[in-house]
Fold this sequence. Notes:
Jelly Rolls, seven-stranded mixed beta sheet
Amino acid sequence: xxxxxxxxxxxxxxxxxxxxxxxxxxxxxxxxxxxxxxxxxxxxxxxxxxxxxxxxxxxxxxxxxxxxxxxxxxxxxxxxxxxxxxxxxxxxxxxxxxxxxxxxxxxxxxxxxxxxxxxxxxxxxxxxxxxxxxxxxxxxxxxxxxxxxxxxxxxxxxxxxxxxxxxxxxxxxxxxxxxxxxxxxxxxxxxxxxxx
Length: 196
């Protein structure tokens, strides 16, 4: 293993500090941030203040946000899954410091947001775990994240979104429908989200 391929485990605070040092250009493609996530793992014990759990739905916990990116910890109970969704033409990288997850990717055959109609085809499924982060393919960004019951454990994923966004399109391939939804945080910077 070359020195560049060595894996470091760092505290969340250190991870955020390094992420903030990346130039704007690093967020315009996927390779640099994927390399960073592959070589720099967040020590799970340092995530505690940013984790919250809900038996009904995964939680979205804001850790850091700049004009270039937002870093979110998503907590998944066994059996929980996201909707099939896109990322509004933004890049997304995911790492899993705790547990493992599946990313189910889809090919968008067509969509008409105004009419709420779409057609999707399954593409592939990849597993994310502490040794295997991934990036959403900018050319085929429609996907869902799943914590299968057969994994028998909670999981935490760290998501880096560039640039920050507050809505996305969700899809139902069974019904051939799609529509825009607003996104919300469960906690912000370790504190419960204030009600508006």
